[in-house]
Amino acid sequence: MPKRILQGRVVSDKNEQTVTVLVERRFKHPLLHKTVRSTKKYRAHDAQNQFKVGDLIRIVECAPISKTKRWTVLTDEAVTA
């Protein structure tokens, strides 16, 4: 089964080796047919502490690292947009 890759913005980098990423999802409401924005926060592992608040990054699923961390930052590049 392929691992999910999500793109979002870093909203917190206060913890050691951890960033909080806000991921926005857009979908059409099934009854109202209106575009709805839904957001969710994920905690991701950032081993080198290289990403700061406001960076646009990609995260990938991984095995549980701690109680709340199940994602790892893709370190190949920061997304430019």
From TrEMBL:
Xref: InterPro entries: NA-bd_OB-fold, Ribosomal_uS17, Ribosomal_uS17_bact/chlr
Family matches, as Pfam families: Ribosomal_S17
Keyword rRNA-binding attached: yes
GO biological process: translation
SUPFAM superfamilies tied to this protein: Nucleic acid-binding proteins (SSF50249)
Domain of life of the organism encoding this protein: Bacteria
One GO location term (cellular component): cytosolic small ribosomal subunit
Keywords per UniProt: Ribonucleoprotein, Ribosomal protein, RNA-binding, rRNA-binding
Coiled-coil intervals, chain numbering: none
MF terms (GO), sorted A to Z: rRNA binding; structural constituent of ribosome
Annotated function: One of the primary rRNA binding proteins, it binds specifically to the 5'-end of 16S ribosomal RNA.
Description of how the protein assembles with itself and partners: Part of the 30S ribosomal subunit.
Family under the similarity heading: Belongs to the universal ribosomal protein uS17 family.
Protein name: Small ribosomal subunit protein uS17
